[in-house]
Structure prediction request, 448 residues.
Amino acid sequence: MASTHDLLLTALAEQIGQHKKILIGFSGGLDSTVLLHLLVRLRIQSYQLSRERMALRAIHIHHGLNPKADLWGEHCRQVCADWQVDFRTEKVQLNTRQNGIEAAARNARYHAFQRELQPDEILITAQHLDDQAETFLLALKRGSGPAGLSSMPARMPFAGTTLIRPLLNVSRAELEEYALIQKLPWVEDDSNQDDRYDRNFLRLNIMPLLNQRWPHFPQAVSRSASLCGEQEQLLDELLQESLDSLITAEGSISIPPLESSSEAKRNALLRRWLSQCGVKMPAREQLQRIWSEVALARQDAEPRFRLGHYDIRRYRQQLWLLPQYQNLAGTILAWDLQQALTLPDGLGTLLCAKENGMTVRKPTANEQVTIRFGVQGNISIVGRQHSRHSKKLWQEFGVAPWLRERTPLLYYNEKLIAALGVFITKEGQNLPDNEGISVQWKKITHHI
Prediction:
């Protein structure tokens, strides 16, 4: 009869399947040490059976929160050297302004994983059964719905590859038993004893009582989380066709069909739209404000709602999810037309050539060339008899409000010559018998 330890190895092999390139998040604690040891054993077993070597790498995230952090990193390096595992340490900076230290550390960790992952490499992390129960209770404390209560999936898409958590059905007690029998070295993070942190409070004060009264409480919670996950998966399948019909080619979502939906269906569709864009699940109150303050704002308004690192805006009866752009108002860039000009905030590059761009007249010797952003007032453009206000022109040319402030404006001294890619003013018109210049705007494509 197979031992519990052999069953762990077999279950790990089944979850990894045919993947041969693996990156493990290695903190040096009990959980990740056991997982790394199992992977090393699996690497040996795989080579013995098929003579195919598994590419195993470990990454240690140095959060810089504990005075012992350097010692933990050295411990991890030594363990990986002893077990012949490629190893690297990644130091991260934490942004604690929005959600506190625990969330900031987790976000920094997963951003580091995302940066480090190589093509065809999967990520494996060591969360276990007790972690799953704590995550469920934390979601319950926040008032989460089924998506939040589904807690951590055993397998999920991540950074263009797959994230696997193979220990979610294994208790901490089982991991400790394995580590003791195998004589594995691990580090203990003394901050885990600080119950000011929510997860530690549950682990130290609540879970022992629950386990004492109901010994199989973590398993029951895990089943509930799985059931919530199944419900969310079913909703995903049922709503996918509706969602596909609402999302435009640019990634925005159409408002009118949502107006005729029930609030429950509308919220479910908005959540899935945001999820597809990689945005953290918003609270119900946030969804209500997005709908009332942005989608249903008066027609002449330019509403905006900040959600994490993004802005949600409305344009042409669609909701758009956008990065938080830098305010470029007042920016003036001197431009030597003989050189390429790099624009701020990832807007790309301007080049001056003789063709393949927007053709305007050449500046005279006493005209200084600059690039600016944001224009107000009446403008006379080529092809129009009368001037029009800048806002009307932007609307006429179909330029979204947030792009109006990010469209490079070409000036000769104080004369507006062109809004690049949009219009040329009468001051910038090039006559047929003149040698004009062609201005190219090479944009950088951003994907959310």
About this structure: The mean pLDDT is 89. The first strand starts at residue 21 and ends at 25. The longest helix spans residues 217-246. The radius of gyration is 28 Å.
